[in-house]
């Protein structure tokens, strides 16, 4: 899984957004398979949320705001569950904050000021 994320990150750095999206999608599918075998594994849950966020980032770069929002919201659902499960886990709290910020940024680009403000406040 980490190798696919790394490949996606390299592709983004090279400007190959389609290759990045493909690598992140493979990473997402691997995380989903692992979670199927062990749904309580919080690291794999986090990995899945990271994949959704990475896909969202690529979709933003490709100009697909609605697709990015959908991806970010999938990651957000996972991150909210993790953060609620352990409010003292600073990594999960940070992940949650990053997701809200990403959603807010997309909503700003879509000229949804009230929605963006609500996301930023969370």
Overview of the molecule:
The protein is mainly α and 122 residues long. It contains six helices and no strands. α3 (42-61) packs antiparallel against α4 (65-85) and α5 (90-109) runs antiparallel to α6 (113-121). It is flat.
The overall pLDDT, averaged over residues, is 92
User: What structural class results from the helix and strand content?
Assistant: mainly alpha
Which segments are poorly predicted (pLDDT under 50) over 5 or more consecutive residues?
A: none
Q: Classify the oligomer.
A: single chain
Radius of gyration: 14 Å
What count of helical segments does DSSP give? Answer: 6
Morphology call: flat
First and last CA, distance: 30 Å
Could you spell the SSE succession in H and E letters?
HHHHHH
Count of DSSP strands: 0
Question: Helical residue percent?
Answer: over 70%
Largest sheet: none
Strand content: under 5%
SSE order and pairing:
Layout: H1 2-13, H2 17-37, H3 42-61, H4 65-85, H5 90-109, H6 113-121
Helix pairs in contact: 1-2, 2-3, 3-4, 3-5, 4-5, 5-6
Q: TL;DR?
A:
This protein is mainly α and 122 residues long. It has helices spanning 2-13, 17-37, 42-61, 65-85, 90-109, 113-121.
Features:
single chain; 122 residues; mainly alpha; 84% helix
């Amino acid at each position: 899984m980490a190798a696919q994320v790394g490949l996606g990150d390299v592709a983004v750095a090279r400007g190959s957004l389609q290759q990045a999206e493909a690598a992140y999608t493979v990473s997402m599918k691997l995380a989903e398979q692992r979670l199927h075998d062990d749904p309580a594994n919080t690291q794999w849950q986090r990995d899945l949320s990271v994949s959704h966020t990475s896909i969202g980032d690529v979709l933003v770069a490709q100009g697909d705001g609605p697709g990015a929002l959908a991806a970010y919201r999938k990651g957000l659902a996972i991150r909210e569950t993790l953060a609620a499960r352990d409010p003292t886990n600073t990594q999960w709290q940070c992940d949650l904050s990053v997701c809200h910020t990403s959603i807010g940024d997309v909503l700003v680009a879509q000229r949804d000021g009230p929605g963006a403000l609500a996301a930023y406040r969370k």
